[in-house]
Amino acid sequence: MVQYSAPHLDQSFGALSDATRRGVLERLGRSDASISELAARFHMSLTGMKKHVGVLEAAGFVRTEKVGRVRTCRLGLRRLDEEAAWIEFHRRIWADRFEALDGVVTDLKNKETAND
Amino acid sequence: MTEQTKIERASEREFVVTRTVDAPARIVWEAWTKPELMKRWWVPRSMPMTLRSLEMDVRVGGGYRLAFGDEGTEAMVFVGQYKEVEPPARLVWTNEEEADGAVTTVTFEERDGRTLVTVRELYPSKEALERNHGAEEGLPEQFEQLDQLLLDLAKDG
User: Could you say which of A26, A100, A108 has the minimum Cβ distance to residue B27?
Assistant: First the structure.
């Protein structure tokens, strides 16, 4: 049984929430590229691009390999497949509901305390 | 601190959601069985829909009806029947707006003043479960972005 817990998916969605990072994935979908190529392509400093790639790497979307002085980036193995999307859709619904439910039960508890 | 909501596929035709709520079971039960309370939390924030009406007759064999929609319309109606009502521990209802709707079982387990809520949705088939993607309710924006991105990647790959 595969479990899709919140932190795992939050990381994925966090990684994809940035336009540059989505651009990097699209670019890597065409071919592998070095950090400096990506930095040039997105008009960004090497340090800035390293950070973006780091986020994508941590989320499993990108793999990097250093050969000599060049770090090459390619698409990672992990893809959010349909099942993950389905699960995440329903997790959001329920996470939202439970968050609102917390507010309701807090009110009920406070009322009880006031009536004691 | 907000508790974590966990969700998993228990089988091909069932998924299970668990969440701990910081209140005794009798209070959580109240929030799940009184319409005036239910309407304050049931509609997910990420899906801004207007709940037009909510009727609940919480007893074995009793029905419920939720209607969503904008001004003067009822775009979406959810109906079903309560099958088991065991306060404050267990609630089972059917989802009958579609022919192959799920049976929802909710259990409330109290421990040290907190309650573990487990929601199980059991569909008649794997296909029925997967069909309930909720796409008609409008996927969150990030999902559309993600879908598009995956399509682009597949095309380019």
Answer: A108
